[in-house]
Amino acid sequence: MFVRNITTMSGFLLTGFSDNRELQILHALLFLVTYLLGSAGNSIIIIITTLDPQLQSPMYYFLKHLSLLDFSSLSVTVPQYIDNSLEGSGYISYTQCLLQVFFFTAFAWGEVAILTVMSYDRYVAICLPLHYEVIMSPRKCRLAVTVVWLSSGIPGTLYISTIFSIRFCSAKIIHHFFCDVPQLLKLSCSNDYLIVIGVAGFLSAMSFACFIGIVLSYVHIFSTVFRMNSGEGRSKVFSTCLPHLFVVSLFLSTGFCAYLNPTSDSPNALDFLFSIFYTVLSPTLNPVIYSLRNETIKSCVRKLLLSTKFTG
Q1: CB 42 within 8 A of CB 67
Q2: In Å, how far are 2, 28, 77, 192, 270 from 24, measured between CA atoms?
Q3: Residues 8 and 16 sit within 8 Å (Cβ to Cβ)
């Protein structure tokens, strides 16, 4: 009955991963645990990079903003899905859906931008160490982060302004756990979605340009590393670069796979897996990935957790 009536309502029906009530509750609990872990991990990174004097370099300044973007991105999609799963309805209003599109695309672009800035920071630190303090001065770092946050509003604004022109004629059923742009385009009944595809193409080209910038940075980084005579120096470089490279690879590869795959009326398990990776697991795992090989971060986390200032 609810599926039949959704065509006459102003909102949409998110199908999620299953229509089985027990599985919906199980998924809600799993997403809740993941959200709490991701929120805790990113919050710890934000706290220690703000308060600890050891973590006041540009690398950790950018890491703090990556964690802010990760925490924000998680908060856009996961709580709504948990609420829908527990209620068993899957309904999301038109306004909520547009807000999800705006903030999710904004934070996704922000993450691409900050990862690009972080790769440039590592390139300057390793390939141009004598000029590092001049190139990555505090003023320039603040300017770079300001540009990242301001530019993140562009994708959301472009998508929202073009989605307003779409007429949704078919059953308003979205085969996903959040309002995703490709799924919304499938609900259009005419060619009025072509301008949205144009926006998507423009943003894809910008993302690809960032990807090329990251690749070029790491080509220079690794060529410099392999010329190093000191094994200790190489180890130190790898401890700061490999986590960033892994985060970039995980986020961009799963995001590209999810968006380059043609959308279908019955998404398979692989489609859902890709979407979970870039929307949920990537921002949840980033704090762990950055902490695994970085002794400074691990030391600061231990100090935070054991400090009487916090535990008291």
Answers
A1: yes
A2: 17, 6, 16, 34, 19
A3: no
Residue 210 main-chain phi, psi, to 5 deg: -65, -40
What is the total count of domains within the chain?
1
Q: What is the residue-level pLDDT of the chain in tens, covering all 312 positions?
A: 344 444 455 788 888 787 788 888 898 899 999 999 999 999 999 999 998 888 889 999 999 999 999 999 999 999 999 988 888 778 888 889 899 999 999 999 999 999 999 999 999 998 898 999 999 999 999 999 999 999 999 998 988 888 887 777 766 888 888 888 888 887 877 666 677 778 888 888 888 899 899 989 988 888 888 877 766 667 777 777 778 788 888 787 777 776 666 555 556 666 777 778 888 888 898 888 887 767 788 888 888 777 645 444
Which residue do the tokens 């600061």 mark? 300
Measure CA 294 to chain center.
21
Place of tokens 């904004």: 106
Q: What is the CATH number of the domain that holds 193?
A: 1.20.1070.10
Question: What range does the domain containing 130 cover?
Answer: 2-311
- Which tokens go with 200? 């998507």
Q: How many CB atoms lie within 10 A of CB 237?
A: 19
Is residue 294 classed as helix, strand or coil in its secondary structure? Answer: coil
